[in-house]
# Entry
Amino acid sequence: MTLIDLDQAATTATRRDVLEAMWPWLTGEHGNPSSTHALGRRAADALADARSRIARIAGVRPAQVVFTSGGTESDNLAIIGLTLAAIARGRDRHILVSAIEHEAVLESAAYLERWHGVEVTRIPVDAGGVVDADAARAALRPGTALVSVQAANNEVGTLQPLDAVLAAARTVGALVHTDAVQYAGWYPLAGLAALDAVTISGHKLGAPKGVGALAPDARHDERGMAGQARRRGNSA
Ligand SMILES: Cc1ncc(COP(=O)(O)O)c(C=O)c1O
# Structure
């Protein structure tokens, strides 16, 4: 019997060309990119090449790309990291997320609510599953720390009004994150480069499970996540 998988939004098989590209780096070329010997330097070059390619696709600078273990970790890092960093810089303990975010976003927001006293406003959607940009605008406050609205929904595929959300958030100086896990591969990611952080996941696009990235904006580079990741030699 032939199996027809109609749920490729959940995950995809790893593509042969992806496996072939990875194979040398999983076998003979197994260096640690932080090592100073030849094996390590070759791994560091390969990592830099991968970082540049993702940066080109995402329309950001290579130094902005933070590798993660997937969409969930990228969302956790963005929601919790950006919110706590913004609060440390004087923003209020208030964030907005859409009511139809993936659990990775909703649970990160709930964590902030429970353990860090952050007030979370969940923005409703209309009958078609589109985030209500007017409700987002109305919920924003002068000190709101972060707004997170997905680019495309994981259940019904609706595209969200990110331009309107971004414009509204900018009027109060709030950071904006988008979960673009279901958007990447279908629409150009470079169109999201004006946002403060973008989540992507490899296994929706023919890469193995356990590969993802977050592209935080340049302004967070040195003191924030990308800078910290670089100082740690982010190589996952
Ligand atoms: C919109 C969205 N965000 C995040 C995730 C989590 O990604 P990952 O499975 O790479 O952790 C998914 C996976 O289904 C998703 O659809």
